[in-house]
Structure formats: structure tokens, C-alpha cells
Amino acid sequence: MGVEQTRALRHATLAMIGTIIGAGLFGLPAMFREVGFWPGTLLFWGVVTLVTLTHALFVEVILATPEKMRLTGYVKRWVGVGASRVTAVTYPLQVIGVNLIYLLFGGEFLAALARLIGLPDWLLGWQILFWLGGATTVFVGLKLVAKVEAAATWMLMGTLALSAVLVGFRINTTTLSEGNWSAFMVPYGVFLFSVSGMNVIAEVADMVQRRRTDVLRASLVGTLAAAVLSWVFGVAMAFTAGGTDRAPATLGALLPGGFAWLIPTIGFLAVATSYITTAQDLKASLHLDFRLPKVAAWSIALFVPLVLLLFFKTNALAALDVVGTLFTGMNGIFIALTALVVAKLARRPAWVTVGGYVVIAAFGFGLIQRYLLR
After folding, report:
1. What pTM value is reported for the model?
2. Listed residue (187, 155, 168) closest to 270, CA to CA
3. CATH number for 62
4. Domain span at 185
5. How many domains does the chain fold into?
6. DSSP state, 291?
7. What is the Cα–Cα distance from 272 to 31, expressed in whole angstroms?
8. Residue 179: helix, strand or coil by DSSP?
9. How many beta carbons lie within 10 A of that of residue 131, not counting itself?
């Protein structure tokens, strides 16, 4: 493997990790706290298994298609126009919803850092500044996105590890045996949001020039690495002694004195690395799948979440659940449906067919449980 190929693989893997570890990370402590260690851990790794399989199926779809597309284009090519009309709504809405959440959290974390160094605490101003930085990076293009993503992701992983070490010695081990099994499925949407990276798979394929081994390695290693880091952070923050509230804004109080800066730093890095990649993906989807000019695609991808931020009030944690369960679940089903067609027409391995049915059943159950059984 040459130097350039190794570098591309590293950047692609870091892009997966940085995109997956985003705003959903800060919903994990409250969810683990609500259901307990064992129920939460069982559901979390069940969701990780489902997402990892979905990512692998999407890789097969991408590699079987000569043209560069995004989800709506793949569905249209392999499944049909009717199905693509659904994803023409669900996929952009998923990414727009995700990026709105990133703007909400990103501005809050920037404002928290600003307070620590004595700068004005103007939340909307910091949210707009966060948007402006992300918009500039996305406008320049994929190469800059990869470089910024790589550097920020290394810093993100370092600060996440440091926070886990700082609180790890203060975990109240007696609470680990407690479990609220009756609320087992409550964290499903937040967990799904926190570990899903389907929006970046096509970008990862582009980064490594669609080399099969590299795409699979980057997507699967990146998914599992992000899941491990997220689980460690979520569990450590959920069961550390002290306080009862595990809302994102209060997590810093669990850290020793002098480390108040760590949580907003982790938050900013997590959200920034995710935002620039998902915004880039939406721009690419609008250009490749909907045939919009690049400037129009860039404008819609970046300005629609900003307009929603300016004119609508929303609860970020509630939005995590809706985007995770509804849009991620529906798009996961369409990825699986497309993979089933690809397996039949392009002669993919047998696991693709089996995996496709498993993913459809699992996401279908999640949607039914969330919207029909409650």
C-alpha cells in the first residue's frame, strides 16, 4: 500500500469516526442513566451491530454502481422511481435535521467556551459563527473537509479519552447492577442517531477512490471505533458519582475542578467534525441526485438549517430521537431494499441478501415500536 493510499485510508477512517461522534454523544449519559448499565449496554451494542451491517450493505450498493450518487440516486437506479420519491424526502430531511441539531449544539458549546475566557455570551451569535466556519469549509471542497476532519477528530478522540479517565475512578459501581428493563427501548432513537454514519459512507468511498478493501475497512473500523469511544463516554458520564442530571449542559460539573473546559471542547469538536461532513454530503446529494447546480446545492444544504435555526425553536434532545428513529430508520430500510436488488442483479455474496432482510426487519420493528406501540 502506497503512502498516498495509506493517507487516504486514514483520512477516510477518521472521517467516519468524526462524523459518527456528534451531537448524539451528549444524549448517551441521560439514556444510560435512565435504563441502567446492562439494559443500556445490551441495546447500545445491538444498535451498533445493526448500523454496522447497514453500513456494509451501503458499501456494496455504492461499489456496484459505476456512477457517483447518493442514497436517492442509488434507490432510483436499482429499486425504481417510486421508491426514490420517498427517499427524495426522507434523506434530505434526515441530513437537514441532523445539521440543525449540530448548529444548536455547536453554538451552545462555543458559547460555553466563550464564557470561560470572558467573551460575550451571545448564543445566537456563536451559532451563526459556528455555521459560518462550517459553511466556508464545505464551500472550499472535499479535500479541505478531509484535512480539517482528520485534525479535529484526533483532538476529539484525545479529549474523549481524557474525560473518561478523569471520571472513571469516580464511577459508582453499585449503580451498575441496577436496570430499568421496562424502559429498555426508550434510548433506541438516541442510540441510533449517535452511532449512525450512513450519510458519510459515499464520501468515504470517494476519499479512497472506491477501492473495495479500503472502503470496507474505513467504514467498519470507523463505525466500531466511534461506537467504543461513545459507549465509554456515555457509561462513564452516566454512572459517575455526583449529581442526578445528565443533561449536556451539566456534564462538566462531573469533572474535577480545573477541567470545566473539557466538555464544551469535546462538544465543539464532535459537532464540528460531524457538521462539515454531513453538510458536504447533502450538497453532493442535491447536485448528483437532484441535478442542481453546485452553487444552488451548496446554498440549500447550508442555508436551510440556518433558516430553521433562526425561525424555529426546537428541543435538541427530542430532535435526536425523531431524526434517529424516523428518518435514519426509514433510510436504513431503503438501503437494505437497494442492497437486496443489487445482490440479485449484480451477484453479490449471500450475506448481502440475509443482511438486507435482517436490517429491514430490525428497522421496521424500531419504527413500529416507536410510533405504533406507544
Report:
1. 0.90
2. 155
3. 1.20.1740.10
4. 3-371
5. 1
6. -
7. 23
8. strand
9. 23
DSSP letter for 327, please.
Answer: I
134 pLDDT more than 90:
no
The answer to whether 367 and 350 have CB atoms below 8 angstroms apart is no
Determine the residue type at 311: F
CA distance 146 to 372: 41
**Cell numbers representing residue 13 in the block:** 477512517
Per-residue model confidence as pLDDT tens digits over 33-62: 889 999 999 999 999 999 999 999 999 999
Three-state DSSP at 167 gives helix
In this structure, the number of other CB atoms found within 10 A of the CB of residue 66 comes to 8
Q: Which residues of 231-253 are buried (b: 16+ CB within 10 A; e: fewer)?
A: bbbbbbbbbbeeeeebebeebbe
Longest dimension (CA), the chain: 61
Pick from 361, 339, 322: nearest CA to 77: 339
Q: Can you tell me which residue has the cell 427517499?
A: 87
Rounded Cα gap, residues 84 and 76, in angstroms: 5
Q: What is the DSSP track for 209-252?
A: TT-HHHHHHHHHHHHHHHHHHHHHHHHHHHHBSS-S---GGGGG
- Dihedrals phi, psi of 312, to nearest 5 degrees: -130, 140
